């Protein structure tokens, strides 16, 4: 299962947002600095890739299928983007071995943008997980957002996290949402079956996004364990003991989501002790995310006080 947004040929959901962006572009009113905000895993990056493919493949053979909201894998734009060789598209995201998007990535972006374009098509810059920009990276990015070169569009992806007001104020913010039923429907369409038949009832969650569900299933498949047979507590323990969270950022995000789900399913206002522990750990999880603190210390404490307490 390839879950990278760049490879998602079908756009499930967000059709009205897609059509709005395309109409704005056709009317020459598309903002050149767009912020897509919403929960991680709802398809913000996939939406961006579809908008970009539609615009860049417009005059190509096998152009975007607007009627069915599908990228044609035979179009030149798609092939060049997936090969990371499209001169009109630049993407920036956190490297797997890093805790933040560092300033060298932004410096390289500036160098690239200052070079002449190979053609008259617009150029797109897609920056995912912008909440992981460090302060130096943000400051460098702000300079090119203030006065971007002609015919360049920035699309920034924010996973409902706090970002600097100076960065947010320079972009036109679009809040992207999915209802619980939409998330369920999209997940099942991608899988071709009902995901509730594949996961233990303790792991099902009203707040789950398609991305979190699909990545959890993919993770289980790669690590050879049956999500139908493992409960929530044992799943979290397996993540921590095997240090699965060190693999990549999405796995770490997935683990923190499972920890928060554990509290939602087990804490009640009558259990004052567990309620206090929940508040303590939710705050600690948020601080760890925001300030890139040591994960291992947090997780060892969580295992000791919550899972084994």
Overview of the structural elements:
- The chain is an alpha/beta fold.
- It is 47% helix and 8% strand.
- α10 packs antiparallel against α11.
- The longest helix is centred in the last third of the chain and has 20 residues, at 272-291.
- The radius of gyration is 21 Å and the shape is globular.
- 30% of the residues are buried.
Topology:
Elements: H1 15-26, E1 33-37, H2 44-56, H3 76-82, E2 89-92, H4 103-113, E3 123-127, H5 135-146, E4 152-158, H6 165-168, E5 172-175, H7 180-191, H8 210-222, H9 232-241, H10 249-266, H11 272-291, H12 295-307
Parallel strand pairs: 1-4, 1-5, 2-3, 3-4
Helix pairs in contact: 1-2, 4-5, 7-8, 9-10, 10-11, 11-12
Please supply descriptive tags for the structure shown above.
alpha/beta; 47% helix; globular; 12 helices; 8% strand; 5-stranded parallel beta sheet
The multimeric state of the shown protein is single chain
Helical/strand content category: alpha/beta
**Average pLDDT metric:** 90
- Can you tell me the overall shape? globular
- The radius of gyration computed from the alpha-carbon positions, rounded to a whole number of angstroms, is 21 Å
Helical residue percent band:
40-55%
How far apart lie the N and C ends?
37 Å
The count of strands amounts to 5
What summary fits the major beta sheet?
A: 5 strands, parallel
Query: How are the strands of the largest sheet arranged?
Result: 2-3-4-1-5
Spans of at least 5 consecutive residues with low confidence:
none
H/E element order: HEHHEHEHEHEHHHHHH
Give the amount of beta strand, in percent. Answer: 5-15%
Give me the number of helical elements. 12
């Amino acid at each position: 299962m390839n879950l990278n947004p760049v490879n998602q040929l079908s756009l499930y959901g967000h059709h009205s947002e897609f059509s709005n962006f395309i109409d704005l572009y056709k009317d020459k009113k598309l903002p050149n600095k767009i912020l897509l905000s919403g929960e991680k895993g709802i398809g913000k990056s996939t939406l961006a890739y579809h908008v970009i493919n539609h615009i860049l493949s417009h005059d190509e053979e096998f152009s975007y299928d607007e009627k069915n909201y599908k990228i044609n894998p035979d179009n030149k734009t798609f092939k060049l983007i997936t090969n990371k060789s499209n001169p009109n598209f630049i993407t920036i995201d956190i490297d797997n071995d890093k805790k933040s998007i560092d300033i060298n990535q932004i410096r390289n972006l500036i160098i690239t943008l200052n070079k002449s374009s190979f053609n008259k098509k617009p150029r797109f810059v897609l920056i995912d997980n912008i909440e992981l920009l460090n302060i130096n990276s943000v400051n460098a990015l702000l300079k090119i957002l203030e006065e971007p070169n002609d015919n360049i569009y920035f699309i920034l992806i924010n996973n409902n996290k706090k970002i600097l007001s100076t960065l947010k104020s320079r972009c036109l913010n679009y809040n992207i949402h999915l209802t619980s039923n939409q998330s369920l429907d999209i997940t099942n369409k991608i899988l071709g079956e009902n995901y509730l038949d594949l996961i233990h009832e303790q792991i099902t969650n009203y707040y789950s996004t398609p991305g979190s569900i699909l990545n959890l299933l993919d993770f289980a498949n790669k690590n050879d364990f049956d999500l139908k047979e493992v409960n929530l507590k044992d799943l979290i323990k397996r993540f921590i003991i095997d240090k699965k969270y060190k693999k990549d950022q999405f796995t770490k995000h997935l683990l923190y989501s499972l920890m928060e789900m554990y509290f939602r399913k087990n804490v009640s206002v009558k259990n004052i002790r567990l309620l206090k522990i929940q508040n303590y750990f939710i705050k600690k999880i948020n601080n760890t995310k925001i300030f890139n603190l040591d994960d291992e210390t947090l997780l060892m404490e969580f295992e000791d006080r919550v899972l084994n307490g």
